Amino acid sequence: MEPRGRYAPSPTGNMTVANAYTALRAWLDVKSRGGEFVLRIDDTDPERNVVTVDSIVSDLTSLGITWDEGPDVGGPYAPYVVSRRLERHVEAARSLEASGRAYWDYTPPLEDASAHKKTKGADRGRTGAYRGNPEPVSGVEPVLRLRVPDARVEVHDRVFGEISQAADDIGEVALLRSDGTPTYHLASCVDDIDMRITSVVRGADWLNSLPQHWLILEALGADPMPEFAHLPLLVGKDGQKLSKREGGLAIRHLVAEEGVPPLALDAYLANLGFPERPDLLSLTELASDFDIAAHNRNSPRFDPKKLRSFTRRWLAEKEAEDSFVAEIRDRAPAVGEDTVRLLLPGVRPRVGTYQEAADLYAFLLASDEAGRDVTPISDEVAARIIGTEPWSAAQLEAAVDSAVPTDAEQRKAMMKAFRDALAPGFRVTPPIHYLLLGLGRERSRIRLGVRTEAAG
RNA sequence: GCCCCCAUCGUCUAGCGGCCUAGGACGCCAGCCUUUCAAGCUGGUAGCACGGGUUCGAAUCCCGUUGGGGGCGCCA
User: Fold this and answer.
1) Bridge-partner residues for A6, per DSSP?
2) Closest nt by CA–C1' to A159
3) Among residues A231, A249, A266, which one ends one of the domains?
4) What is the pLDDT of residues A71-121, one digit of tens each?
């Protein structure tokens, strides 16, 4: 049977590289096995929903991740937005209660749950897993909880292997809140069954909930039970779970603002947890032999430097000329398309993002003025360069080459002078002949301080 | 505090009892090349957390310690 996998983000913030890391693996896992991929929005906590379905869809799309069913494209198990499936969840909850697999807990709610969560150490004042109070208490609206059978739960995880937990250590997770709405735990399990999900790939921050979810799935009669793969958490520089608040790691920031090529980001993220390949791989190539069971179990760190080496190579070797040109034009609209295309070979090997590429064209936008220090360049040499025929990359390269001295020191000094005069203030630029080519004969003449025949 | 997970160069990783004097990639350093800056090429730097076992033999297996991460009453 072909697997059906899903990615079920909660719209609690912009997608970060950590989300992309998870989504990509979930996608690669089903695609490598010829299965179907479902996008489902897990908006079970209305108070924390801050981003739209559209924003999730566009972030995922920008990364080249596609889905067969989802909130935007529909499908046989619609709707794919959890909050719109409430009736099903409540119905499932009732059946669990009826079969005795769940019960009402009358423990009053914690005054300050968020403060409680932050409490560490002995101050926590509790040991062992949560157990509720089934005796009705007047004035308390109960919450429906999973009843934990008195048996050790053992589940196979495709990445982490056998996961087992004693019954005493498994908390009685909430299924319905006191206001009657379903929690993520219930909703997620019900939806996975309803949508015929056979493969769940998610972050290891869910690993502790696995026994509980397994119990819920069993109690709900899931057949077959889905297989699980938990991913070691992608962590930040500090070694801790990446927070959605870290704006710099938001996909849209990286892609839209910094100009990181999304497919290169995919190649980098997909590589984490696996040995590095000699070639930069596309999504299809990555999917061809993806094996989640071979995934490393320790948490990889997001390393911007390593990312840049992927994006740099991507732009130098794999980016198609037309799309590269389009990206640069978006970021440097004042530069003509022909010019962008003409200088691209000189730009390609020097940049790690589309933005860096666009920035390499900025020298064209400065105003032309003579009077720079062009001391090492004699009037005669400058005039000879300006007189180059035809004004082509190859011809200009040859002209510059024959004009500069052979002595290493002098050559260095003269090249630097050319660069300073043609692209004042720019540290990294395309090669000199590309600067000349981009500026054109007349503007180059002015920048090099060569007087015209008439003026002289 | 309790539970779960993890542990090889700074980072990503190879290694599944002898092939390891621990290999590769990124970073960093140096040299070469070169039409500046980049890129490229060559070389270098740096690691099996610690302690016990098991074994003829351990980075590899077991136990412990330490360290790190994650989770723990109606967030996801």
Assistant:
1) A38, A200
2) B5
3) A231
4) 999 999 999 999 999 999 999 999 999 999 999 999 998 766 666 666 654
Domain ranges, residue A29: 4-99+151-167+181-231
Å between CA of A374 and C1' of B33: 27
- Return the percentage of chain A with pLDDT > 70, whole number: 92
Nearest to A98, CA basis, from A196, A184, A221: A221
A419 belongs to a structural domain: yes
Q: Which of A373, A403, A368 is nearest to A388 (CA)?
A: A403
| Residues A82, A187 contacting (CB under 8 angstroms) | yes
Tell which of A196, A215, A231 closes a domain: A231
The CA–C1' separation of A262 and B54, in angstroms, is 50
Residue A127's nearest nucleotide, by CA–C1', is B2
| CA A300 to C1' B44, whole Å | 27
Q: Nearest protein residue to B27's C1' (by CA)? A: A305
Q: Is A397 exposed, middle or buried (0-12, 13-18, 19+ CB in 10 A)?
A: middle
Please indicate, yes or no, if residue A131 is contained in any of the structural domains. Answer: no
Residues listed for chain A: 456
CA A334 – CA A325 distance, rounded (Å): 13
Give the Cα separation of A383 and A392 in Å (integer): 16
User: Residue A321 has what pLDDT?
Assistant: 94
The 3-state DSSP class for residue A201 equals: strand
Which ranges of A113-194 does DSSP label H, i.e. alpha helix?
113-118, 184-194
Asked if residue A394 belongs to a domain, the reply is: yes
Residue A374 in this model has a pLDDT that exceeds 90? no
Q: Which nucleotide is nearest to A203 (CA to C1')?
A: B70
Tally the domains of chain A.
2
Q: Give the model confidence (pLDDT) of A426-441 as tens digits.
A: 878 899 999 999 999 9
ipTM of the complex: 0.94
pLDDT, greater one: A234 or A455: A234
Residue A58 has pLDDT above 70, yes or no: yes
Pick out the nucleotide with least CA–C1' distance to A8.
B76
Give the CATH number, domain containing residue A403: 1.10.10.350
How far is Cα A184 from Cα A51, in angstroms, rounded to an integer? 18
In a domain, A106, yes or no: no
Which positions ≥6 away from A32 have C-beta within 8 Å?
A287, A288, A289, A290, A291
What is the pLDDT, as a whole number, of residue A363? 92
Q: How far is the CA of A294 from the C1' of B75 (A)?
A: 31
| Cis peptide, bond prior to residue A431, ω within 30 of zero | no
